[in-house]
Amino acid sequence: MADFRKVAAVADIPVGTMKSVEVAHERILVCHTETGFFAVADECSHDSAPMGNGHLHRNEVTCPRHGARFDITSGAVLGPPAVVPIDTFEVKVEGEDIFILVED
């Protein structure tokens, strides 16, 4: 069953930054852009590197290990060496709290 879980406060993730969290045994990267909050798997589909040590630019996150790039709105691959998209998670903000929809 899926459920929204609180993962951070809005103030914890300023615009242009991202934060790694663990929710329901999954590593998730919460990204804050000018257009809002997005959440993706905190694991590169190319070699399982943590994406949280990478770089966020607009709606794109770059893996720190080999430079694979992903769209944080869809998980789509934007640049090699990755060829498989990463998972995305639904995000909602209520007041000052950020929630992510995850499976139990």
Structure report:
With 104 residues, the protein is mostly beta strands. The strands form 3 sheets. It has a 4-stranded antiparallel β-sheet, with no helix packed on it. It contains no helices and 11 strands. The protein has a single domain, classed as Rieske [2Fe-2S] iron-sulphur domain (Rieske Iron-sulfur Protein, 3-layer Sandwich), CATH 2.102.10. The radius of gyration is 13 Å and the shape is globular. Strand 6 (60-62) and strand 7 (69-71) form a beta hairpin. The protein has strands at residues 2-9, 17-23, 26-33, 36-41, 55-57, 60-62, 69-71, 77-79, 88-89, 91-94, 97-103.
What distinguishing features does this structure have?
104 residues; mainly beta; Rieske Iron-sulfur Protein; four-stranded antiparallel β-sheet; 11 strands; globular
Q: How would you concisely characterize the structure shown here?
A:
This protein is mainly β. It has strands at 2-9, 17-23, 26-33, 36-41, 55-57, 60-62, 69-71, 77-79, 88-89, 91-94, 97-103.
Query: What are the secondary-structure elements, in order, as H or E?
Result: EEEEEEEEEEE
Number of helices: 0
What summary fits the major beta sheet?
Answer: 4 strands, antiparallel
Q: Order of strands in the sheet with the most strands?
A: 2-3-4-9
Helix content: under 10%
Which fold name fills CATH's third level, the topology?
A: Rieske Iron-sulfur Protein
**Tally of individual domains:** 1
Span of the ends, CA to CA: 6 Å
